[in-house]
Design goal:
Layout: H1 6-20, H2 27-30, H3 38-50, H4 55-62, H5 69-73, H6 82-92
Helix pairs in contact: 3-4
Length: 94
């Protein structure tokens, strides 16, 4: 089994940024090195939590230590829409 790693996501995020903003002087292009996948993992953790996935399962799915999950959930676990909740629930079935 091969897992998706941060470097794979990072490279695709930066590729998409270059395609969306071809001007190398654009603010996003100037800061392209700050585009990292970690914030995506936090978003996924919050979405999983709000769809009633347990904290131990979130840790397992994201390959985190269970004690680190509450740190990333903090106060950002609010405002998820029904559409996002359904999308996450559907993704869990796969």
């Amino acid at each position: 089994m091969q897992c998706l790693r941060d470097v794979h996501v990072r490279d695709w995020l930066r590729f998409a940024c270059r395609r969306a903003y071809p001007d190398p002087t654009h603010i996003y292009r100037l800061n392209i090195d700050r585009l990292v996948p970690h914030s995506n993992r936090i978003t996924v953790a919050v979405c999983l939590f709000l769809t009633k996935v347990s904290r131990p399962d979130i840790a397992h799915r994201l390959r985190w230590k269970p004690e680190s999950v509450p740190t990333y959930l903090r106060e950002c676990a609010e405002g998820i829409t029904d559409i996002m909740a359904k999308a996450v629930a559907g993704a869990l079935m796969t």
